[in-house]
């Protein structure tokens, strides 16, 4: 037996039997916690300095837009190179970005223009980082059957960081400053860098041809495959509407509920708790065609939770709505990712992942920008209620396609298994 594999791991965490994935998992756990601390601290810094809801939307837009524009091309470009080496470089640059943000904040040189510029830089780096990490996970586990579980565990890390990081950020902000939060995030990247340096894998096969040719090949596959096209459309709608709540949380925390940074942290944490529970559930799923129904139910739950949160007048009710919303968004995002990576041929996985990440974060960016601008005119509660209604209408249409989509996914998965 391969010494890097331990077959005694329970089924729900079976991907951890691989030593390479354990190294990645440990490093990523620390890195994600730091990233969530920075995200909450930056959101609070913007609202503390400017009180501008629109700037919250613009900053989120700047941080996520590169995923939509650069992401697909980044996926094609990285498919032509050594992905592990590229990921090490990108992680180092992300650490430098966080430390630079910490220094600018500590020296009180930070302002709206610099915040947007630093967010844009972060977005460009993440446009390379996210598809690199996602597409390498298959190399860390070694067996295609264990890939869905590895993706669910990776999402569990993200959501546990989302659960722990925001309340911790709220505590740190109450005791120290935004600059310290940014500095801690910069240091947290060292954990994943060390893990990546220790990992030993064979370099995945590189795509041949120019970046343009490789990109067009991936686009043709995604557009020509009906199940993948419909899954990506669902992903776009969920993130355009439901995920936009994040931009408006500081408004609800301070203006609607009369709270402070700790209130913001608890709201973030409630969403993270729901998202974490969703990944615990998804980690136990082995029948992939059944994920189609789960993704659709998640979209319906997301619409209902948006409407409930928009109508909340107490923190207690808002926390419950946030937990349901976090569960719903995560089920949709992670479920779609599990399906896409399982459906995609090995040689196209990097490009399919890049389309997933560009849709996931790009439409999150557009939704955040629209939510911020709309809330400045009609208020945050009415904005979220409107978006919840739009998502609900989409769900009604999507449910009419459920049976056809499930059958197509089952047939495609059987075809992949037979290759």
UniProtKB/TrEMBL annotation:
<dbReference type="InterPro" id="IPR036259">
    <property type="entry name" value="MFS_trans_sf"/>
</dbReference>
<dbReference type="GO" id="GO:0005886">
    <property type="term" value="C:plasma membrane"/>
</dbReference>
<feature type="transmembrane region" description="Helical">
    <location>
        <begin position="21"/>
        <end position="47"/>
    </location>
</feature>
<keyword id="KW-1133">Transmembrane helix</keyword>
<dbReference type="InterPro" id="IPR010290">
    <property type="entry name" value="TM_effector"/>
</dbReference>
<feature type="transmembrane region" description="Helical">
    <location>
        <begin position="290"/>
        <end position="311"/>
    </location>
</feature>
<feature type="transmembrane region" description="Helical">
    <location>
        <begin position="230"/>
        <end position="253"/>
    </location>
</feature>
<keyword id="KW-1003">Cell membrane</keyword>
<feature type="transmembrane region" description="Helical">
    <location>
        <begin position="265"/>
        <end position="283"/>
    </location>
</feature>
<dbReference type="Pfam" id="PF05977">
    <property type="entry name" value="MFS_3"/>
</dbReference>
<dbReference type="GO" id="GO:0022857">
    <property type="term" value="F:transmembrane transporter activity"/>
</dbReference>
<feature type="transmembrane region" description="Helical">
    <location>
        <begin position="352"/>
        <end position="376"/>
    </location>
</feature>
<keyword id="KW-0472">Membrane</keyword>
<protein>
    <submittedName>
        <fullName>Predicted arabinose efflux permease, MFS family</fullName>
    </submittedName>
</protein>
<feature type="transmembrane region" description="Helical">
    <location>
        <begin position="382"/>
        <end position="400"/>
    </location>
</feature>
<feature type="domain" description="Major facilitator superfamily (MFS) profile">
    <location>
        <begin position="15"/>
        <end position="403"/>
    </location>
</feature>
<feature type="transmembrane region" description="Helical">
    <location>
        <begin position="317"/>
        <end position="340"/>
    </location>
</feature>
<keyword id="KW-0813">Transport</keyword>
<keyword id="KW-0812">Transmembrane</keyword>
<feature type="transmembrane region" description="Helical">
    <location>
        <begin position="86"/>
        <end position="103"/>
    </location>
</feature>
<feature type="transmembrane region" description="Helical">
    <location>
        <begin position="53"/>
        <end position="74"/>
    </location>
</feature>
<dbReference type="InterPro" id="IPR020846">
    <property type="entry name" value="MFS_dom"/>
</dbReference>
<feature type="transmembrane region" description="Helical">
    <location>
        <begin position="171"/>
        <end position="199"/>
    </location>
</feature>
């Amino acid at each position: 037996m391969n010494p890097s594999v331990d077959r005694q791991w329970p089924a729900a965490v079976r991907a951890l039997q691989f030593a390479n994935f354990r190294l990645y998992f440990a490093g990523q756990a620390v890195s994600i916690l730091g990233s969530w601390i920075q995200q909450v601290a930056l959101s609070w810094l913007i609202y503390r300095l400017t009180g501008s809801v629109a700037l919250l939307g613009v900053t989120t837009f700047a941080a996520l837009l590169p995923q939509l524009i650069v992401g697909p091309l980044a996926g094609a470009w990285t498919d032509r190179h050594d992905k592990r080496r590229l990921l090490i470089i990108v992680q180092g640059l992300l650490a430098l970005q966080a430390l630079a943000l910490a220094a600018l904040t500590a020296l009180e040189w930070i302002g709206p223009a610099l915040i947007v510029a630093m967010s844009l830089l972060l977005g460009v780096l993440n446009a390379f980082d996210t598809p690199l990490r996602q597409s390498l996970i298959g190399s860390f586990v070694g067996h295609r059957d264990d890939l869905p579980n590895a993706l669910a565990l990776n999402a569990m890390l993200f959501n546990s960081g989302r659960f722990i990081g925001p309340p911790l950020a709220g505590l740190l902000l109450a005791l120290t400053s935004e600059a310290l939060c940014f500095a801690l995030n910069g240091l947290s990247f060292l954990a994943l860098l060390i893990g990546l340096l220790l990992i030993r894998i064979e370099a995945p096969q590189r795509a041949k041809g120019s970046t343009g040719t490789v990109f067009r090949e991936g686009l043709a596959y995604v557009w020509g495959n009906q199940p993948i096209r419909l899954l990506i459309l669902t992903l776009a709608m969920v993130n355009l509407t439901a995920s936009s709540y994040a931009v408006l949380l500081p408004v609800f925390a301070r203006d609607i509920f009369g709270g402070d940074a700790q209130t913001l942290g608890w709201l973030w944490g409630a969403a993270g708790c729901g998202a974490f529970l969703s990944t615990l559930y998804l980690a136990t799923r082995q029948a992939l065609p059944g994920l189609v129904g789960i993704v659709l139910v998640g979209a319906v739950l997301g619409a209902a939770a948006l409407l409930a949160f928009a109508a909340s007048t107490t923190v207690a009710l808002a926390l419950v709505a946030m937990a349901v919303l976090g569960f719903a968004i995560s089920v949709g995002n992670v479920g779609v990712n599990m399906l896409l990576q399982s459906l995609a041929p090995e040689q196209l996985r990097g490009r399919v992942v890049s389309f997933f990440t560009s849709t996931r974060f790009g439409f999150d960016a557009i939704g955040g920008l629209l939510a911020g601008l709309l809330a400045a005119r009609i208020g945050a509660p009415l904005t979220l209620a409107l978006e919840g209604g739009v998502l609900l209408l989409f769900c009604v249409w999507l449910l009419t396609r459920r049976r056809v989509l499930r059958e197509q996914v089952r047939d495609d998965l059987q075809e992949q298994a037979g290759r």
